[in-house]
């Protein structure tokens, strides 16, 4: 995830916290190879990212804001790993990948995987991590 905002400063509310905006990624799916299972399963991700606002008058330029494509590419790389242990691993790693970007202040990640049984039930994990947790 690129971050070319070294010369920008986060915008603060007068006497308050940094202004933020929210990025939502809903229903991202990718095949994963789970440890102990043959074949691939389809993982489903929902992300809510709280991101520092780039400031007043920022240019209409992808470099000024978080790129959805960067997030999706990071998720694709994560899902390409072999022997994934489960949805908790995927949720933790996805949150860490998002928080590696300095603009992201908070990452909430939900992951669902199909059950190994044929009953249609799924398994999942949900985590919320803050930038302070990632240091």
TrEMBL record:
Residue stretches making up the Dihydroneopterin aldolase/epimerase domain: 23-129
**From which source organism is this entry?**
Azospirillum griseum
InterPro entries, per the entry? FolB_dom, GTP-CH-I_C/QueF
Protein name, UniProt field: Dihydroneopterin aldolase/epimerase domain-containing protein
A GO molecular function assigned to this protein is: dihydroneopterin aldolase activity
SMART domains, per the entry? FolB
Q: Name one GO biological process term.
A: folic acid-containing compound metabolic process
Q: Which stretch is the leader sequence?
A: none
């Amino acid at each position: 995830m690129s971050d070319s905002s070294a010369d920008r400063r986060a915008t603060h509310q007068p006497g308050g916290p940094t202004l933020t905006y929210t990025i939502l990624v809903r229903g991202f799916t990718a095949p994963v190879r789970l440890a102990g299972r043959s074949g691939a399963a389809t993982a489903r991700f929902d992300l809510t990212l709280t991101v520092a606002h780039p400031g007043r008058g920022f240019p209409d330029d992808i470099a000024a804001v978080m790129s959805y494509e960067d997030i999706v590419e990071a998720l694709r790389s994560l899902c390409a790993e072999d022997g994934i242990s489960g949805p908790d691993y995927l949720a933790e790693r996805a949150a860490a990948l998002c928080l590696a970007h300095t603009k992201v202040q908070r990452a909430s990640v939900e992951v669902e995987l199909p059950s190994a049984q044929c009953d249609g039930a799924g398994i999942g994990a949900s985590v919320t991590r803050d930038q302070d947790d990632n240091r």
